[in-house]
Amino acid sequence: MNEIVIPVQLIEALKKAQRVAILTGAGISAESGIPTFRDQLTGLWAKYRPEELATSKGFQRNPRMVWEWYAARREKVHTVEPNAGHYALAELARKVPELTLATQNVDGLHQRAGSEGVIELHGNINRVKCFDEGLLVDSWNENQGIPPRCPRCGGFLRPDVVWFGEMLPDEVFEKAEYAAKKCDVFFSIGTSGQVEPAASLARIAHGIVITINLEVESLISPYRYNFNGKAGEILPLLVQKL
Ligand code: OAD
Asked: What domains appear along the chain, each with residue ranges and CATH number?
């Protein structure tokens, strides 16, 4: 592993920052054992077709397959733990006056690590809603087939995640956008920046932009800091220096 150097100017800027905004993606949960989407070998979208598993058309075509795929991912999420990257961001919130954390992840690991007020841009795999009515459902009869049925209307149940072609939940994106526009320091962590509108947050971000992922070229400049490396190694080092 290359030695990770956190530039002094960055630490100073973070110490002065009044508002910090963060966007995370699948990469922050990779060290917990959850596969990312676009890794060429291990990524979920390298093995499965997103239009079959992450669109309402795909669900209508094969609801059983889609339900079972998400049920398996939900099981996986329950067997893993937040990692040092998730914990470092929860700690960072205690060190700066205002912090807004928006995630594209549906695994709930930020919350389990102690982050509060997390903006879930793409929903949460632990919640279930009615495909027809869109209302959240807490419990259902397991004996009515797969997918289970909505206890209110009898429609199929589906995960409460945002599929391709669907709108983000009301006001959720506006909150993240506002935080990005108003912040002094913006972090883009573990995301390939290929999915809109989440990716646009890094482009509209005000102030210093820090990017951490395995693909970015390392860079240090007054307004941009790119770290090529693992969030679970870089973030704890950075937060410890504040
Ligand atoms: P991607 O799989 O597109 O990108 C993952 C990013 O994480 C890549 O840039 C990797 O370099 C980086 N990465 C991998 N391991 C890392 C580590 N240990 N530390 C830091 N970075 C690491 O995932 P997302 O950008 O999150 O949407 O994908 C965005 C959306 O596309 C997902 O929310 C999902 C997917 O389709 C929906 O399902 C709606």
From this structure: 1-34+81-122+167-242 (3.40.50.1220), 37-79+126-161 (3.30.1600.10)
Q: Residues lining ligand 1, CB < 6 A?
A: 25-27, 30-31, 36-38, 43, 50, 54, 104, 122, 162, 190-192, 194-195, 212-215, 230-232
Confidence of residue 177 (pLDDT cuts 50, 70, 90): very high
Element (DSSP H or E) covering residue 22: strand 19-24
Q: Percent of the chain scored above 70 by pLDDT? A: 99
DSSP codes of every residue in 144-209: S-SS-B-TTT-PBEEEEEPPTTPPPPTTHHHHHHHHHHH-SEEEEES--S-STTTTHHHHH--SEE
Choose the catalytic residue: 78, 86, 110, 122: 122
Nearest CA to ligand 1 atom 38: 163
Question: Using CA positions, which residue lies closest to atom 2 of ligand 1?
Answer: 37
CA distance 106 to 209: 24
Residues 6+ apart with CB under 8 A from 73: 125
Rounded to whole angstroms, the Cα distance separating 156 from 133 reads 10
Give the mean model confidence (pLDDT) for residues 202-211: 95
- Predicted TM-score (pTM) of the model is 0.96
What does the pLDDT average to over 144-169? 95
Q: Give how far the C-alpha of residue 193 lies from the chain's centroid of Cα atoms, to the nearest Å.
A: 11
Catalytic: 122? yes
The pLDDT of residue 23 is above 80: yes
